[in-house]
Amino acid sequence: MGSKILAAVRKTNNIRLKNKMIISIVVVVFIPVLLVGSILTVSYRQNVLDQATQQTMNNVDKIKKQVTDILRMPIEISNKLQVDDRLSNLVNSRYETKFDMVTAYWDFRYFRDYVQLYKEIHNIRFYTDPPMKISNWDFLSADESVKNSEWYLEALDKSSSSISWRYIPDETKDNRPYLSLVRRIDFPLYRSYGVLVIDLDQDELNRILSQEPFDTMIFDSKGLIVAAKQPQWVGRNIDSMDFAKDLSDKPAGAYEFDYEGKTSKIVVEEVVPPYSRNGLKVVSVFTIDSIVSDANRVGRLGFSIIAASLSIALVLVYFTSSFLSHRLLLLNRVLNKVSIGNLNVKSDVDGNDEIGALSRQFNHMLASIRSLMEEVRESQLQKNLLELRQRDIKLKMMASQMNPHFLFNALESIRMKAFVKGDTEISNVVHLLGKLMRRSIEIGDRKITLKEELDIVRCYLELQQFRFDDERLTYKLHLDHSAKNVEIPPLIIQPLVENAVIHGLEEIEERGIVIIDTRVESDRVVITVEDNGCGIPENKLREIEHSFQDIEDAEEHRIGLRNVHQRLILTYGEGFGLKLESPPGSGTHITFSIPLGGNLHV
Fold first, then answer.
1. Which residues pair with 478 in a beta bridge?
2. How far apart are CA 288 and CA 48, in angstroms?
3. φ, ψ of residue 227 in degrees (nearest 5)
4. Residue 267: is it exposed, middle or buried by C-beta count within 10 angstroms (0-12/13-18/19+)?
5. What is the separation, in whole angstroms, between the first and last Cα of the chain?
6. What values do phi and psi take at 155, rounded to 5?
7. φ, ψ dihedrals at 465, nearest 5°
8. What are the angstrom distances between the C-alpha of 519 and each of 317, 374, 480?
9. Cellular component per GO (predicted)?
10. Of 468, 536, 547, nearest to 501 (Cα)?
11. Which long-range contacts (CB under 8 A, 24 or more apart) does 290-295 make?
């Protein structure tokens, strides 16, 4: 796959620059702009549609809240009447005369007061069972048509806590249908019951929908439209309308339907009041074309502007590419002259654009090449001279390498002469000195084992014992067997021992001792150098610890305590430096640790 792409790219090298630019403007500009324009237009159209849908859903939600507020009042009234003793006594009392009954009816004004007090309530009536002897517009005896009606039978079949919302005719209002609350009212004390019907005001329901921008309606669980922006729809069944024949079974949400032959959006929201076994649905419908027509017009205008702009751009690219090609051809002619070895030519292409800058850089490059050719001749002469000097340096280095071997051989001759003459002490000291010098020179920068480091320390202490004698200087050296092969930087313990002998025991006349202890603790090797000398004064100890942080290192102190501390930090990291303890007059105690594996700090 990669080879095919590479081959296709190489083929483009045979296309002239002017054609490449035209193809590039088409591929890089024309097609992406058309795609982006199409995508933006579709996105803008969809965004407008989504905003309209969201606005409609917000409006429907607002209608839901308003309808819920309207339905809340008849629910509260029915709850009060359900426990109202006055209603129970009125319905279940036995009156001696009709006059007493009429008087009791007249005194019970709560139904009329509710209707007058709340504009949402159009009428309240109560059906008694068993029927009362006299009926009025508030208290009615259910006739056969009422008893056989679906809503009445459903109310008797349910408990008194269940509310039903039905669009039913009101026989006291010329059988005009209203959205009504239907609820069974039980009188447990009298073992009787009745059916309460509260009609909602139709005008109040229509008023909620009258200001909506789109066709909006409310229908009950049977599909009957109880309120609508277009009043002529009220009373129709939703299934009889072509645009929403299946809408009664749809849950809350947004759907697409055909409305009057046009694709439309329909938003459905459910209203289920408390204590109710059924509810209402709010529906709002709008055609998609009516919403996106402005977006389509903007899209057409945008495509027209894009087409005009791209046409102008194509013309400008054509003339610009022709001009650039001409200037590049002029520069190419000069390059051809240089290719045949003529370095004295000059490009005459002017201008401050990239091609003009390339022309100036080309002229500068030719001048630099001529200058470099002269420098190459001079550098060749200097190179030959440098090789001669290097040979001389190598000879001197070989001569300097013989000096340490000569010194070792001389010391070995002195040792053997002393040994032959029976002076074993001098022989041993010269042997230790030679061994110490050889080890120090041969080590270099490589790491050594802890055992090798302590061998150097032992040689150093033996020489110092020869200098001070055994009564003035003794030493103890302990090497943990499990740590003898741990690798450490060379000459890391010897400077600490040297510091203990020279500075700690210099003023001790007798019984001076240096103790070197190595022990393994967990994952570290702890190394301690201790002496019983005069110790370090407090202020001097603080100066030494402060000097540990200095970076600059004078030549004469490079093997001192600070040098060892910084080597440990650089090798193993923070936490592996020297730790000094020196109570006045009680000697000096120096401790440091290294990882058991000898890992470097990277």
1. 517
2. 10
3. -160, 150
4. buried
5. 43
6. -65, -40
7. -65, -40
8. 82, 68, 5
9. plasma membrane
10. 468
11. 291/48, 291/49, 291/52, 291/265, 292/45, 292/48, 292/49, 294/48, 295/41, 295/44, 295/45, 295/48
pLDDT, tens only, 367-407:
888 788 778 877 777 666 645 544 543 444 334 443 454 44
How many residues comprise the chain?
Answer: 602
Write down the H helix ranges in 239-352. Answer: 288-339
What pLDDT digit, counting tens, does each position of 157-182 carry? 866 568 999 999 998 888 899 999 99
Residue type, 476: K
Residue 11: how many CB atoms within 10 A of its CB? 9
Distance from chain centroid for Cα 43 = 27
Angle at 318 between CA 316 and CA 324, to 5 degrees: 100
Beta strand pairing call for 579-581 and 487-488: unpaired
Reported as half-sphere exposure (CB side, CA atoms, 13 A), residue 300 has a value of 5
Gyration radius (Cα) of the chain, Å: 55
Give me the sign of the Cα torsion angle 433, 439, 441, 447. Answer: negative
Is-contact 184 156, C-beta < 8 A?
Answer: yes
The residue written with tokens 């359900």 in the block is 82
Residue with tokens 């009422």: 146
CA separation for the pair 190, 196 (Å, rounded): 17
Helices and strands of the chain, counted as H and E runs: 16, 17
Token digits of residue 81: 């009447």
